[in-house]
Design a protein that fits this description.
The complex is a heterodimer of chains A (379) and B (461). With 379 residues, chain A is α/β, with parallel strands linked by helices. Chain A is built from 13 helices and 10 strands. In chain A, α5 links the parallel β4 and β5. In chain A, α5 crosses α6 and α9 runs parallel beside α11. Classes of the chains: A alpha/beta (379), B alpha/beta (461). At the A-B interface, α2, α9, α11, α12 and α13 of A face α7, α8, α9, α10 and α11 of B.
Chain lengths: 379, 461
């Protein structure tokens, strides 16, 4: 390599200070050394530079979806819950203020289910009574309650649609928060079950979970339009499927304001990154103006409890009472940062942790002064 | 890389000889691979010749990631951070995973100090075929006494091969430790508006990477720029971990990363440091739980290095798992090939188990079977890369699919029994499966960690 010594010489002329401690470098490092020397030769100085933030002005906006209906709107809920309306990515408070905070829906099942220890201990008394279970959730601070009609599954209890609808009525009586109604996941039976549930819950503006590509989603969607509910559009970790299903639902005459998407939540350690990136891509597409993806996003965060690291009582993994809720809370937080709006959760401890973090992420921009020495000298 | 490069932009500067010496068929293919970062410029022997020096340097600059890669430590014990070139992982991938440093300080009793250091040394956690570790030890000067700090650094250094972070705002304190451990290329924390010159001199003298710290973005840029004016290019940025206001922390991290990648701002094109260890107890929530949530927030949004206080395994486990998730290559397929696998050396009376072709499910099951030492056949069903619960819910795993797979792999010829263990979450297909296939379906545990016990208690051929 050649260097132009004349130029270097010129540079050095104006230098007030030059330190050449680095001259014992090998030939391989010569290039670096040269640039270091040249820079060192320049006057080392502190200049007050001003940082100009690169702010994004996204053309698109996520639809606002209202859940639950009060008396004024033909329902019996005490309050409505709003999700969506985002103008930028979650908590990018420096460029725009998104209107709503993430909301929590607690899970309730219509039959006794197996729950992980750290969750079960909070619900031990109510596991066989969905209405009491729902009440307890509200006590724990639930924004919404999801009643999962899993007993309708033909391989479980094969509860009839009519009987299941009764459970929905009981829950609507028991609590005044908006509710989400879920089927058993059986594609043959769910349309019938959800249709009946939609009928008895008429006017309450529930979320009906779910319409998916593997069942008669038209029947579910039409029931929701007829009885005034919101449809949960559920796909499995595939953004193109999600767009397709949304298009179909919009094609049936539904509005963006009547839809929420669930692109599937894979738990921390078990594919969370797929959910993270799909939600991030969905939200970016929405903000860039893709009308087929401009709906709020829901996460079945409870899936975190399927991870053995969450439920297993393994001494080498430390205290399960803390590890389990953290597993759920970190899953929620990560998907929240990717763009999810609504979180179906189970552990009150996890919800508390998640909400506390959201609170901190929602603080106004004014920065509280930071005692910089503090963390270093902390005992 | 401020502008998104295409293969043509790169190709212009390549030799265009299609000599294949790099292993690629054409220079254009090599150009595409360069953008994907699957190959390095140095892999092209032509480019390394003097005639191409200028083009080589031009390409080097074009391909330099927006966030510079910074190396901490020496020899085998190095940690690389930064080197990132995308804002979102789906745009390419995130490269160097967030390094985790555990804090110690110079007022710890000798025993407690050694215990913490050894904890970091010995921390190994195997997960889906990868060994997850803690990466560095951050030594804080609590005493403010240079001698004491140097002694502590020396003790820690003697005990560990992990790279160090030396933490003090007092250049004299830092210098005392650098005299002892400076040869190991620790990360120096921190240069500030007031100390950039003295700390910068230390960084240059000991050739160590150095953290620029400021609570304000303009000041941070100014400190980094001042360090650069001294010829220092191994910089890490600490925009201030105000753990009471994650809104401001997230904002600064995001804006710094945008400046680096989208604006090609050289002063901010460096890895980011977050300090969840600064968490203090409030709101009645346990401090450690909070620390994890803060660390997870930072990790989700661009932190390249975190200094942690907690050494509770229940707190670290979610964090190292999150890190493993985020830094997985999104280009890696979700699915493994379906078919029949042999685990160990199965015989005609060995168990047959069933799982899906979702990579994570598959690897988890295989690792559980291997560690349990169970010789068996594993029938992997094509569920479009979905896990058990999801594919049962979505219909990608049903009785007829299993029946077809049993036929296709000629399972009847491999074993003399007619029994298959299916995952606990797929219990609902057991009846149908028996009807359709004539094989007895044994409903296994909900989680494959229970397979060993299940096989011991329930299996007989």
């Amino acid at each position: 390599m050649k260097f132009d010594l004349t130029k270097l010489d010129e540079l050095l002329k104006g230098a007030e200070e030059l330190e050449l401690e680095n001259v014992d470098m090998s030939v391989g490092e010569l290039e670096l050394a040269l640039s270091a020397m040249v820079s060192a030769a320049k006057r080392a100085e502190y200049r007050d530079l001003s940082f100009e933030a690169l702010l994004m002005d996204f053309p698109g906006r996520v639809a606002e979806v209202e859940l639950g209906a009060t008396k004024a709107n033909g329902g019996t809920r005490k309050n409505v819950v709003r999700v969506g309306g985002e103008k930028t990515l979650p908590f990018y408070n420096f460029e725009a203020q998104n209107p709503y905070r993430p909301v929590i829906a607690y899970d309730v099942f219509d039959m006794k289910v197996h729950l992980a220890g750290p969750v079960r201990k909070h619900f031990e008394e109510v596991l066989e009574d969905p209405a009491e279970w729902a009440k307890l959730c509200v006590k724990y601070g639930a924004d919404l309650v999801t009643v999962h009609l899993i007993s309708t599954d033909p391989t479980l209890k094969d509860t009839s649609a009519r009987e299941a609808a009764k459970t929905v009525e009981d829950v609507l009586q028991a609590v005044k928060v908006p509710i989400i109604i879920g089927g058993s996941g059986n594609p043959e039976k769910d349309p019938e079950v959800l249709e009946k549930a939609a009928e008895v819950a008429e006017g309450e503006r529930c979320v009906i979970s779910s319409a998916s590509l593997n069942l008669d989603y038209k029947r579910v969607a039409r029931a929701c339009m007829k009885h005034g509910h919101v449809v949960l559009s559920w796909t499995q970790l595939d953004i193109n499927d999600q767009r397709t299903l949304n298009k179909h639902l919009l094609g049936l005459g539904m509005k963006k304001e009547d839809l929420i998407m669930d692109p599937t939540t894979a738990a921390l350690g078990y594919g969370l990154e797929y959910s993270f990136s799909i939600m991030e891509r969905i939200r970016l597409a929405a903000l860039k103006g893709d009308g087929d993806l401009q709906m709020p996003v829901s996460s079945g965060t409870t899936n975190a409890w399927g991870a053995r690291e969450a439920w297993m009582d393994a001494r080498e993994w430390g205290d399960r009472e803390k590890r389990g809720p953290l597993w759920e809370a970190v899953t929620a937080l990560t998907l929240c940062l990717a763009g999810s709006d609504l979180f179906m959760m189970m552990s009150p401890t996890a919800v508390g942790l998640f909400k506390d973090t959201v609170e901190s992420l929602s603080r106004p921009r004014e920065v509280e002064p930071l005692d910089i020495g503090n963390w270093i000298s902390m005992r | 890389m401020a502008k998104k490069l295409g293969p043509l932009d790169i190709y212009r500067y390549l030799p265009k000889t299609n000599c294949r010496e790099c292993g690629e068929k054409t220079c254009m293919a090599f150009a595409s691979q360069l953008i994907e970062r699957d190959v390095k410029l140095e892999d092209c022997p032509q480019l390394m010749k003097p005639d191409f020096a200028e083009k080589f340097h031009h390409l080097k600059e074009m391909l330099a990631p927006g966030v510079k890669e910074v190396t901490i430590g020496t020899g085998d014990a190095i940690v690389k951070i930064g080197g990132e070139e995308v804002i979102f992982r789906h745009e390419l991938k995130y490269f160097n995973q967030t390094a985790l440093a555990l804090g110690v300080h110079d007022e710890l009793e000798a025993d407690a100090l050694l215990k913490r250091v050894r904890y970091v040394n010995d921390f190994k956690f195997k997960r889906i075929g990868e060994e997850l570790t803690l990466d560095l030890i951050a030594i804080r000067s609590v005493s403010g006494d240079p001698e004491r700090f140097a002694q502590c650094a020396s003790k820690v250094s003697a005990e560990t091969g992990k790279p160090l972070v030396l933490c003090s705002y007092d250049p004299k304190v830092l210098e005392a430790a650098l005299k002892v451990v400076g040869g190991k290329r620790p990360l120096i924390y921190a240069a500030t508006k007031d100390t950039w010159k003295e700390v910068g001199k230390l960084a240059r003298k000991y050739r160590c990477p150095v953290v620029a710290f400021a609570d304000d973005m303009s000041e941070l840029k100014s400190v980094a720029s001042a360090l650069r004016s001294m010829g220092i290019e191994d910089i890490v940025l600490d925009p201030g971990s105000n753990v009471k206001n994650l809104s401001s922390v997230l904002g600064k991290f995001v804006l710094a990363r945008r400046a680096a990648i989208l604006k090609d701002d050289k002063d901010l094109g460096f890895p980011l440091l977050g300090i969840p260890a600064a968490t203090s107890a409030e709101n009645g929530l346990e401090k450690t739980l909070k620390e994890v949530m803060i660390a997870a927030t930072m990790m989700d949004k661009y932190a390249d290095l975190l200094v942690l206080h907690t050494q509770e395994i229940w707190a670290l486990l979610p964090l190292i798992t999150l890190r493993q998730n985020l830094y997985t290559d999104p280009r890696k397929p979700v699915a493994v090939d379906p078919g029949l696998r042999s685990i160990g050396k199965p015989t005609k009376s060995s168990p047959v188990l069933l799982t899906t072709n979702f990579a994570l499910t598959y690897y988890t099951v295989v690792s559980d079977l291997e560690s349990a030492g169970i010789a068996c056949y594993l029938l992997v069903i094509d569920t479009d890369g979905l896990g058990v619960q999801a594919s049962i819910a979505g219909g990608q795993l049903d009785a007829s699919k299993v029946k077809d797979a049993i036929k296709r792999v000629r399972l009847g010829e491999k074993v003399k029994h007619r029994k298959i263990v299916i995952p606990g979450y797929s219990a609902r297909i057991s009846g149908d499966l028996e009807l359709q296939s004539g094989w007895k379906a044994l409903v296994g545990p909900m989680d494959s960690s229970g397979i060993k016990e299940f096989i011991e208690k329930k299996w007989s051929s």
